[in-house]
Write a structure and sequence with these properties.
- This protein is α/β, with parallel strands linked by helices.
- The chain has a domain at about 10-105 and about 180-250: Rossmann fold (3-Layer(aba) Sandwich).
- Helix content is about 45%, strand content about 15%.
- The two termini are about 15 Å apart.
- The mean pLDDT is about 95.
């Protein structure tokens, strides 16, 4: 790291069924490479320490910057959508975005309605079968076929509650979230869009999203699927830290 370069605070936002702890290994690897800046972890509504937070994604995203402060917002999957919502408020405290395995939502009305129905079915199923069985079903999905069990953080996911996860699906799922595709041009801050090399769906989405953002770079994490920060934490950390450092250096010139 160049002497005297201030990269600012890093704020990490997790995915569905996770908690802030799922970012720890990758986040601390990023921080070490950047000479240990301030690091903030957020438990999003319905998860972890925020299991009883009943706010929807828009309201929670607006309040998030009051909690986390000024910095680079790093979001995985659902966390990336929260970060995008926060950036679209125009809040200057969101200085940069890193979006991993994320999407601005579903732009086709019919597909969004189908997903909303599916998420409602999932929300009801959590109440019927409990968190443990639901988490096992969730992790058995094709999206996580490349995620080794020892990297899945299953035990930490079981800290969540059925009510909290159901609320998250109903208030922050891509079925209920308005599509942000048409608003990406409003996000003028620097953004890094990441996808795992083995995650074809989100590689395609990420490429399209980076093209639509005015000031974005796209990168692929080699040997990783959807949860690249868990599957390849050090490779992910190297890409993110290098990008943040270059952004900070450019801003200091």
């Amino acid at each position: 790291m160049r002497q005297g370069t201030d990269v600012g605070r890093l704020v990490f936002l997790h995915g569905f069924t996770q908690t802030h702890r799922h970012w720890h290994r990758c986040a601390f690897s990023i921080a070490r490479r950047l000479d240990h800046p301030d690091v903030v972890f957020v438990d999003l509504p319905g998860h972890g320490l925020s299991t009883d937070d009943a706010r929807g994604i828009g309201e929670a995203a607006e309040a998030m910057t009051d909690l986390a402060g000024t910095g680079t917002y790093v979001g995985y999957s659902m966390g990336g959508r929260y970060a995008l919502h926060a950036a679209l408020t125009g809040d200057a405290r969101v200085e940069r975005l890193v979006l991993l395995g994320a999407t601005p939502g579903i732009d086709a009305d019919g597909e969004r309605a189908t997903r909303r129905t599916a998420d409602e079915d999932r929300a009801r199923r959590i109440g019927e079968i409990g968190v443990e069985r639901f988490v096992d079903e969730w992790l058995a999905a094709p999206l996580f076929s490349t995620l080794p069990p020892e990297r899945a953080g299953r035990r930490e996911r079981l800290r969540n509650t059925a009510a909290g996860l159901a609320h998250s699906l109903r208030s922050a799922g891509t079925g209920v979230q308005a599509s942000l595709w048409g608003r990406l041009g409003e996000v003028g801050i620097p953004a890094l869009v990441l996808a795992g090399e083995l995650d074809g769906k989100f590689t395609e989405i990420g490429t399209r999203m980076a093209d639509a953002l005015p000031n974005a770079d796209f990168a692929v994490v080699a040997g990783a699927g959807h949860a690249a920060h868990a599957e390849q934490p050090d490779r992910t950390a190297a890409i993110v830290a290098d990008w943040i450092l270059h952004q900070a250096q450019d801003a200091a010139r």
